């Protein structure tokens, strides 16, 4: 089933070339169903790339999903033109009066900074508070997950001795949890971060549960027990070459990065990486949309509280 995005959005052509059903607004209004309304706060500097990655995963269900992109008004993007943002992104003032079935808050390359030092931190806190009563279920990714755990539950992040970058094995620890339904006993997920949250901190919070962990990457997926919030420490949405681009960027910056683990065949950056996390990425997003958005939100979206 389709996703609905603005008719002239540049992601549409890329997705259609991948045989993903993108519906234009005129056709969508004639569908005799209520589409799911998903809001995406895209904090990544590579906004267009992140848009395509998330839209690709959100499209892989039998549900019609209407997407709106949100920007932080208190942050000036260095990598995306104001014209692009004005055309495809909305400010909080433009969406604050609406209800949404789901909300996605992406990661951001600010994890080495204290939360309060991030220039849009106050605005993000306001958005996270707003989401508690205006969104049914929120999916937080990487730094977005760390920010939400800190803001909502007082769980801090801690610096790692070195950046974790690569593809790591994980295992579900709550096998009957709907978000993990259909997952293999071992699954893969990309990680790219300098910080982590500690398993003991999450386990000490009675409102949270850990759903999947990695012996190397640590806590991978956790959730509020009411299903209204999910926290993904990795990047299931990453494309085949996303880690490669990050590695090449860091090399050019003179950061002397380690080669991403379990990524390049033969550990050679000249080799084309294998992509072996795609199926579980699709399963994660489809389970979230099905079990925690579609099956839980009221048909009258204004009844969300």
Automatic annotation (TrEMBL):
**Alphabetical list of InterPro entries matching this protein:** Class_I_gatase-like, HST_MetA, MetA_family
Question: Pfam families per the record?
Answer: HTS
State the Gene Ontology terms under molecular function.
homoserine O-acetyltransferase activity; homoserine O-succinyltransferase activity
Q: List the subcellular locations.
A: Cytoplasm
Q: Which reaction does it catalyse?
A: L-homoserine + acetyl-CoA = O-acetyl-L-homoserine + CoA
- Membrane-crossing residue ranges in chain numbering: none
- Annotated positions for site Important for acyl-CoA specificity: 111
Q: Which UniProt keywords apply?
A: Acyltransferase, Amino-acid biosynthesis, Cytoplasm, Methionine biosynthesis, Transferase
Q: Where does substrate bind?
A: 163, 192, 249
The record's annotation in Gene3D superfamilies points to: 3.40.50.880
Q: Some GO term, biological process aspect, for this entry: which one? A: L-methionine biosynthetic process from homoserine via O-succinyl-L-homoserine and cystathionine
CDD domains attached to this UniProt entry = GATase1_HTS
Q: Kindly identify the residues recorded as the active site.
A: 142 (acyl-thioester intermediate), 235 (proton acceptor), 237
Query: What GO CC terms are in its UniProt record?
Result: cytoplasm
Site Important for substrate specificity — annotated at 192
In the UniProt record, the signal sequence range is none
Query: Does the record bear Amino-acid biosynthesis in its keywords?
Result: yes
Listed EC numbers:
2.3.1.31
Q: What's the main place this protein lives?
A: cytoplasm
Listed pathway(s): Amino-acid biosynthesis; L-methionine biosynthesis via de novo pathway; O-acetyl-L-homoserine from L-homoserine: step 1/1
What is the role of the protein in this entry?
A: Transfers an acetyl group from acetyl-CoA to L-homoserine, forming acetyl-L-homoserine.
Q: Name the family.
A: Belongs to the MetA family.
HAMAP family this protein is in?
Answer: MetA_acyltransf
Query: Per its record, how is this protein called by name?
Result: Homoserine O-acetyltransferase
- Naturally occurring in which organism (per UniProt): Flexilinea flocculi
Species lineage = Bacteria, Bacillati, Chloroflexota, Anaerolineae, Anaerolineales
């Amino acid at each position: 089933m389709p996703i609905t995005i603005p008719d002239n959005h540049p992601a549409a052509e890329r997705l259609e070339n991948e045989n993903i059903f993108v519906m234009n607004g005129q056709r969508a209004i004639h569908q005799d169903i209520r589409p799911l309304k998903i809001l995406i706060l895209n904090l990544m500097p590579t906004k267009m790339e992140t848009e395509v990655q998330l839209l690709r995963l959100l499209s892989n269900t039998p549900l019609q999903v209407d997407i709106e992109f949100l920007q932080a008004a208190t942050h000036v993007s260095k990598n995306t033109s104001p014209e692009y943002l004005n055309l495809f992104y909305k400010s909080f003032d433009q969406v604050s009066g609406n209800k949404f079935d789901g909300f996605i808050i992406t990661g951001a390359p600010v994890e080495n900074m204290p939360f309060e030092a991030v220039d849009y931190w106050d605005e993000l806190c306001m958005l996270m508070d707003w989401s508690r009563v205006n969104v049914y279920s929120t999916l937080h990714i990487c730094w977005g997950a760390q920010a939400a755990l800190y803001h909502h539950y007082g769980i801090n992040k801690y610096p790692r001795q070195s950046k974790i970058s690569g593809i790591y094995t994980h295992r579900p620890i709550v096998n009957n949890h709907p978000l993990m339904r259909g997952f293999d006993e071992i699954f893969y997920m990309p990680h790219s971060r300098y910080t982590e949250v500690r398993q003991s901190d999450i386990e000490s919070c009675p409102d949270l549960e850990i759903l999947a962990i990695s012996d190397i990457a640590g806590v991978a997926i956790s959730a509020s027990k009411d299903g209204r919030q999910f926290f993904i420490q990795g990047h299931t949405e990453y494309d085949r070459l996303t880690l490669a681009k990050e590695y090449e960027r860091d090399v050019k910056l003179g950061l002397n990065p380690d080669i991403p683990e379990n990524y390049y065949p033969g550990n050679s950056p000249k080799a084309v990486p294998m992509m072996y996390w795609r199926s579980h990425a699709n399963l994660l997003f489809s389970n979230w949309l099905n079990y925690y958005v579609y099956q839980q939100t009221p048909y009258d979206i204004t009844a969300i509280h």
